[in-house]
Amino acid sequence: MSGRMKPEILVSGAGVAGLVTAVILAERGGAVCLHEAGARIGSGASWMAGGMLAPWCEAESAPEEITRDSLDAVGWWRAHVPECAANGTLVVAPPRDLPELARFARRTSHFETLDGRRIAALEPDLADRFDKGLFFPEEAHLDPRAALVALRERLIALGGKIFHGEDRPAPEAFDWHIDCTGIAARDSLRGLRGMRGEMLLLRCPELHFRRPVRLLHPRIPVYIVPRAESVFMVGATMIEAEDSRGITVRSMTDLLNAAYALHPAFAEAEIIEANAGLRPSFPDNIPKVIRDGWTIHVNGMYRHGFLLSPARGMEVAAMVFGAE
Amino acid sequence: MRAYGHDFASPLLLGTALYDSPAVLADSVRAGQPGAVTVSLRRESAGQLAGQAFWTLVRDLGVPVLPNTAGCHGVREAVTTAQMAREVFGTNWIKLEVIGSGDLLQPDLFGLVEAARLLTEDGFQVFPYTTEDLVAAERLLRAGCEVLMPWGAPIGSGRGLNNLFGLRALRAHFPEIPMVIDAGIGRPSHVAAAFEMGFDAVLLNTAVAKAGDPVAMARAFRLACEVGRLGFEAGPMPERDMAVPSTPTLGRAMLDA
Question: Which domains does chain B possess?
Answer without folding.
Answer: 7-234 (3.20.20.70)
